[in-house]
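We emphasize that the prediction below concerns an isolated chain of 176 residues; any contacts that depend on oligomerization or on bound cofactors are therefore not represented. The input was used exactly as deposited, without trimming of termini.
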Amino acid sequence: MASALYQSIELLSREKGNMRANFLAVLALVAFFILFVATWLAQYLARQISSPISELVQGVGQVSRGNLSYRVTTTGIDELAVLIDGFNRMAADLEANRAELEARRRFMEAILESIPTGVISVDSGGVIQRVNKALTQMLPFAGERVHRLDDLFPSEDATEIRYLMNRARRTGVASR
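Result of the prediction step, given as a token string:
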């Protein structure tokens, strides 16, 4: 009987090693499965966040290059959706404002070209931006080689015009 008992203990001892190996194999499989699921979930969530952000970055680049008709089509989650919607509204508003400014510019140019008085458009540094048709008829050289007020007028007149421009900038009104 002792011999049978000893054989049973020896068999159980071998089975214990096998059970331990099986247990460790199952534990490793569960750990790898959890690691796989966690990695997949992390990548999925990262794509949910990074994809809309990269679309927004691309949209900002397009708008900064002047393409105001670009819209971000990616849908975001929570705050990203609000940000994308705000970006698209901002781009639409900028596009509408640009169209309105262009229409106003064309209207002003049409008015300036149709009036019989000579008109000069000058920037704050005295560089001539535009002259109308009436001025080129009065001063034929005005539209060709003239780039500054000093090229078009004597220096005392150019100084007076600069004074009026500075006064208009300060007070909002200047006439003489």
